[in-house]
């Protein structure tokens, strides 16, 4: 008996590069003390008031089938949020509620790509990006954003890779680099999509974690609303990773196709989770700022600790909950450095190679430890790197 080839195609030929994470977890399970700076999981839990709203909704009976594209009130709330943030009129009919941002990412590629197409994505990249493209049967094709250019993708590189492509996937504020694409970069991306007739998929799950702006949604640029799909989520903005609640915003024809896909896959999102999401969004910008604030503080800690290091460089972190460190002066790859750091200092970080070739020789640090513990770990990391460099 054989399995369908589509999953092997989705997986691709390379590994996911997360061996350090799995090894660190095994060490912890064996009783070792390991400082984890690996995963973008907020170190605060979902606010009790949101959980209470979820429980009350379930107790009130919202536990059956729901409107598959999302309950009307939540779709309208998301549409109003997007309108207010971008200035682009957005209606509930432009919104599909999904079980997390990952499902929105998968859905977007399923409804926009066919076998024989190519889907572009910017590298460095979140590790599931190429897999969601390949899951459609399409070719996943990387466009490199180079460290020497501050990990800002160039219009010319997008166009050079665009033959046979139908989509381009971007992420700003960016995981893994912490970079926010500049207005010029966003304009170049929009221009490339127009010239090459590409759909633009804009992953904006870190939209509330902006330390130095602006963070521009490309959907707000002239002529881009009709070719842009925006992905959103409450995982980072409201510390609701386990609730699995996200959305996509797109032209109505895209939402109609995504609705048809949802009928045959997820069949919607539980009503009590949607009610909790509606409650969470209505708590307003002040609540979101309070959830984001620790990561902004920790961004400053990283800058202070690494300032003046002759060995460790820091890509300027303007947003998101990560910092990208350049350790090439140690003479080690990111993978080799991360392995030694785990073995010798019991600190787990993600090697840049996990996120694509342009991040080789770098480390991604998740800013998910309490401030004092993070600072202590970073001081140890800096000292370790400087000792390696002699």
UniProtKB/TrEMBL annotation:
<dbReference type="GO" id="GO:0004069">
    <property type="term" value="F:L-aspartate:2-oxoglutarate aminotransferase activity"/>
</dbReference>
<keyword id="KW-0032">Aminotransferase</keyword>
<dbReference type="InterPro" id="IPR015421">
    <property type="entry name" value="PyrdxlP-dep_Trfase_major"/>
</dbReference>
<keyword id="KW-0663">Pyridoxal phosphate</keyword>
<keyword id="KW-0808">Transferase</keyword>
<comment type="similarity">
    <text>Belongs to the class-I pyridoxal-phosphate-dependent aminotransferase family.</text>
</comment>
<dbReference type="InterPro" id="IPR004838">
    <property type="entry name" value="NHTrfase_class1_PyrdxlP-BS"/>
</dbReference>
<dbReference type="GO" id="GO:0006520">
    <property type="term" value="P:amino acid metabolic process"/>
</dbReference>
<dbReference type="InterPro" id="IPR004839">
    <property type="entry name" value="Aminotransferase_I/II_large"/>
</dbReference>
<feature type="domain" description="Aminotransferase class I/classII large">
    <location>
        <begin position="33"/>
        <end position="379"/>
    </location>
</feature>
<dbReference type="GO" id="GO:0030170">
    <property type="term" value="F:pyridoxal phosphate binding"/>
</dbReference>
<dbReference type="InterPro" id="IPR050596">
    <property type="entry name" value="AspAT/PAT-like"/>
</dbReference>
<dbReference type="InterPro" id="IPR015424">
    <property type="entry name" value="PyrdxlP-dep_Trfase"/>
</dbReference>
<dbReference type="Pfam" id="PF00155">
    <property type="entry name" value="Aminotran_1_2"/>
</dbReference>
<protein>
    <recommendedName>
        <fullName>Aminotransferase</fullName>
        <ecNumber>2.6.1.-</ecNumber>
    </recommendedName>
</protein>
